[in-house]
Specification:
The complex is a heterodimer. Chain A is of the alpha/beta class. In chain A, about 35% of the residues lie in helices and about 25% in strands. The two termini of chain A are about 30 Å apart. In chain B, strands 6-7-8-3-9-10-12-11 form an 8-stranded mixed sheet, sandwiched between helices. In chain B, strands 2-1-4-5 form a 4-stranded antiparallel sheet, with helices on one face. Chain B is globular, with a radius of gyration of 21 Å. The chains are: A alpha/beta, B alpha/beta.
Chain lengths: ~325, ~325
Amino acid sequence: MVALLDVKKLKTYFFLERGVVKAVDGIDLKIKIGESLGLVGESGCGKSVTALSIMRLVPYPGKIVEGSVIFDGVDLLKLKEEEIRKTRGKKIAMIFQDPTTALNPTLTIGDQLAEVFQIHENMSKSEAYKAAKEMLDLVGIPSSQERLKDYPHQLSGGMKQRVMIAMALACKPKLLIADEPTTNLDVTIQAQILELLKDLKSRFSTSIMLITHHLGLVAELCDTVAVMYAGKLVEYANMRDVLKNPKHPYTKALLECIPDVTGRSKKLSFIKGSLPDPFNLPTGCRFHPRCTYAFEDCYNREPELREVSLNHAVACHLYEK
Amino acid sequence: MSDKLIEVINLTKKFPLESGIISTISNRLLGKKPRYIHAVNDVTLNIFKGETLGLVGESGSGKSTLGKCVIRLIDPTAGKILFDGVDITKLNHNEMRRYRRRMQIIFQDPYSSLNPRKTVGNIIKHMLELHNIAFGEDAKRKVTEILELVGLSREHYNRYPHQFSGGQRQRIAIARAIAIQPEFIVADEPVSALDVSVQSQILNLLIELKKKFNLTYLFISHDLGVIRYVSDRVAVMYLGKILELSSTERLYSSPMHPYTQSLLSAVPIPDPDISRNRIILKGEIPSPISLPSGCVFHTRCPHVFNECKSIEPKFIEVKDGHYVACHLYK
């Protein structure tokens, strides 16, 4: 099947006074229609910048310096500002981590939702409001008619995130980018939102790109997983392969760090050191100072992401023979 | 069972919603009752010497308020806190100071809990001097020892907090807490602000220090995995109430309260082969300003029946050491 989204050699750098931060440094991703990809990594690994690059929303002083983002056959990076604006919200939509800052506090929920239909679907105001109400029903907000008149501060965090999802899905986008959609929510509310996303995915076959640091969410929602570390992909495979048979030392270690709720684990392992300084990335493999398997090659040469078994790609010198 | 270090008896903490002078006067003139946020509501529990009691709950459940009340960082509205047999809620400022030395707290955010204008060494040294433990060169020597104990080095003595990563800052906060050799430490979400790869380092450090100094922890977290890893016993909190308390093994293998059951089923597990019957709760945690009548959980409970709406369930021992507040168990 043809990929809906094909990101090739994407590089997004931030040009700061202190130097250049290579937030995203040459990554390739593919998402098919109806497929969901989990982009996983710790803070500062570049997963959010990847999403913003796809949407062409990279903030100053960041710049996409190289690569292409082919979406539905069109390179988004070559589109004019006018054209990309028509794509955003219509064909690709995004949900952010913090619904409180993503919603406009001075407009009612109804106004903000209806606006999407007025802009992208050329609806009249009353039609747009009707459509907005239907969207609130779809995402499971009770007494939706009254909620349309509410301002964001009158809703709880979980409800606000539902409104964000309603807004994102308003135009039936082909791709939904969800950047840590449940990180600010409690577990019981997270479970509700997760069910909602699963349900929407199966009903509308929307492709989803889930950005998260939480491998548990990936197991729930994703078909494929890409693991990022310091701006690079280190492992890219099916969800099951990544979680059950991880190959890269970073992925392995990350999985062993998670305290288990299902059984009393032995001593929890950890990854020595901390995340690298973005201004001063390690030579060779960026993970080598924290890797227990590091050998000479790792210091000198950067490993390339390559397939080591069917549909399982790893960037590690251990698998190069 | 071993000795009780702390006994919390009928502890209640409410915060007035309107504290301004105008609203106070207008309330009085209009004959309105002042409104309160009921953060902790009639909680009774024991913490035994040498154990880690995990306190788990969602945001707004009152777990941090309870933690702060236990060491009297905030004064409770009602109830007693016995520390080693002495009711510390009755102590005045000076008497309390002697007890402060025996209890410490580690906060969630290592970015705001360390003074940015002091060097790491001075932050810890100040603690030693404040509690008359060591002064001058002697204190300095002690500080370097403590730094090494928490996995930092003597070179870090003259650096400022901003020069450290989140995980290292939490090590500094831990160093400060253990510097005066307390018996009891409240750890309030100590790893929530950290990345997973660093989180486990800090958890292991806390466990190691506990063994070394025979510490007692009240470990507060919303993360059920973390709580399971560190705790000997676990208390589950919801809307200011403890709904269930038991040994860690028992709580995770056979949870009794419907809230605990749904909470455990809601945690996503990074293993596609573990399938569970997820209990999805309806709605959200109600407002702590006007608490639900009867059982606080009845508005979301899948097993709710008539009694739950009117009568508050008692916190009873169902099996040895397993306490539940639920009408299903009698």
